[in-house]
Tryptophan--tRNA ligase, cytoplasmic (Hirsutella rhossiliensis), 487 residues
Amino acid sequence: MASASGIQAAEHDATSAPATSSKQDVNPWSVSGEVGEDGKVKAIDYRKLVEDFGTALIDDALLQRFEKVTGHKPHRFMRRQIVFSHRDLSLILDRYEKNEPFFLYTGRGPSSDSMHIGHTQVFDFVKWLQDVLDAPLIIMLTDDEKYLFSEKRTVDEVMGYCRTNAMDIIAVGFDPKKTFIFSDFQYVGGAFYKNIVRFAKRVTYNTVKAIFGFDGSSNIGKIHFASIQGATSFASSFPHIFGEDESKTASIPCLIPCAIDQDPYFRLTRDCAAGLHLAKPSLIHMRFLDALQGPGSKMSASDDTSAIFLNDSAKQIKTKINKYAFSGGRETLEEHRQKGGDADVDVSYQYLQFFLESDEELAKIKADYNSGKLLTGELKAMCIDHLQKYVGGFQERRSRVTDAVVDEFMSTRPLEWKGNPKVPRADLVVPDIKPGEDGAAAGEAGSGKLSKNQLKKMLKEQQIAQRKAAMAKDKTVDSEAAASGGP
Ligand code: TRP
């Protein structure tokens, strides 16, 4: 998520810090672990971030409630504290329980064409959430941010990355009926801009200075940018999805899955939302995928040896893991057999935590590695196998993403979703259509208008969904049958 551009680092004083030891620093533009007296970088202390940022750990009680309410076992990222922290996740579960509308919101700053597997983890998780919750999803591409925060990039350049990054994101597997992807350069205007300006009016320079570390030499675009990332949290920014009636959309919250470095934006957004009498966004935070070099580092798009890229070949993956993946093994085979390795610092094991579904298998690998039964070479081979499958699957889906597919995801159009299958939808949200707008180019990018037919189709689908849900409730049949049975 954060790009280690270095530009921002100057504003955070990181470059002038003494080279010997320093505290961990996690902000939207750079991430670095604590550097000890010995000059070694330590792993990011995520518990400390929870304290510093004032978020809450996702505990067992919350996981149990998630399972009870959704009927799904929590994702492996949730079970393994990879998705480890949250703000008001329970409010979203309350709404799901009653089938009241909410949406998912996440984003990416398109800073280059080379996305790596560290970038796709949040998206993989969001896809799973979209499937489990049957919720609309909004994906923001902050091309403006990546222009404002870089000295070199041009506007055309970031707009190009936007398009290719959208292709990569789509290849994660999102449902086009439930997903709207937009670029700031293209979508800012209309209802969204109204919210951006409402947001901006509530934020002073002193506040962003305190939150983001800006100073008098920061360009004013950076200072303003938080309003844009923040205003995306409000349902009324998307009238083609949630309708134009602000008295209804004001209460529709979003759930923002993001890497923990994005939290400062949304802390500010939650404050602003309260002042604007709009629903506060809820959040769930994910930790980073370590760079190949080990804990405390983060994959970087500009360093080929730090990351596995989405266009790496099976052979490149094998070479990179074997050559660069930091190992928790011992110096010699004998010593390893005798004393065992340290899975907690081993990068291949870290990656298996992300990619291997079975908890039992993972526990066994850890036990075997730490006891010395499993060797580094064997552990690396398992990791290589999983990564090759993951990246191979991605590349296969990516090859099917055409320009037309991107246009579809990025067009302003209504989305279709049903939410909790056990309960009738609490609120029919129908985009208002003004007289005289019939036949407006349906789905045309930027028009934000619906044709009569689109509206009719959408209403009909919503009614069918409602009827289905109502029938399910009447008969008090079990949830499985309710989801698949039709009227
Ligand atoms: N600022 C983020 C980045 O640089 C992009 C982003 C915008 C985002 N909105 C978001 C990320 C919401 C997560 C959630 O990558």
User: Anything to note?
Assistant: The chain is about 50% helix and 10% strand. The longest strand covers residues 103-108.
